[in-house]
Amino acid sequence: MTFLKNLSGFLRIEHTFFSLPLIFAGAFLAADGIFSAKLFVLIVFAGTGARTLALALNRIFDRAIDRENPRTEKRELPSGKMCMGEAIAVAAAGALLYLVSSYLICPLVLLLSPLPLVAFTVYPLMKRFTSLCHFGVGLSLALGPLGGWLAVRCSFEEIFPAVVLSAFTFLWISGFDIIYATADEEFDRRRGIYSLVARFGRRRALIVSRICHMLSFGFLVFLYLFSFRTFFAFPALLLCGYLLYLEHRSFGQVDFVFFRTNILIGFAVLFFTLTGIYLP
Q1: Of the candidates 173, 186, 67, 195, which has an alpha carbon nearest to the alpha carbon of residue 129?
Q2: Disulfide check for 18: which of 89, 90, 137, 266 has CB 3.0–4.6 Å away?
């Protein structure tokens, strides 16, 4: 029972709840309707496996930094609740689930499956040498809508709507990660971590975050004007904009922003996509 509790804390399954909706938004865009239950399950498995691997690698690479940070010292690896062997086993299980699911989806998805693995490996290391590290996180999650599209179409044809959704995801997650870094501003500065907040100060970093989120909303507006233009999608579009605004109103409450607002944004974008596809 203790191991399962530690595993749950290590995996943070709730993190998957703001990545999977964007993957499915890309899938529904590609299908322009309903796709098979089998593909739905495979997308869930692939997305969960990929997220598990990404989070495990992040925890493994950052274990020494987490041990020094009062905010993260009680995480499973730095506190000794889990050993490295267990963490590596979790990462391997996530990779296996992701790769097997990719194989079962279609040959093109399997062929491209190493690309997210490279992104998941590189982005946790970026904070050690560049203040653009936030955009590495954004790029990793921006692959989700493209992956959802390719899972349905197994082709790059007419992929532009998914590219727009990926651009939104890239800017949304990058902007959020800058906000998230405010929780460790002083520690990152002392430790030499290259976050925008530590390098250039909170005020300037949050300006960059606001610009990212304004641009991200612009991509949703573009999607609405050129792909949907339906009445029922408009309130969903406004909801997405409000939730992006709310992230900045509550940036001092990082846990609230991460676990609630960000999850809501993912589902709001999925709802926006579904109303744009299905309702007049």
Answers
A1: 195
A2: 266
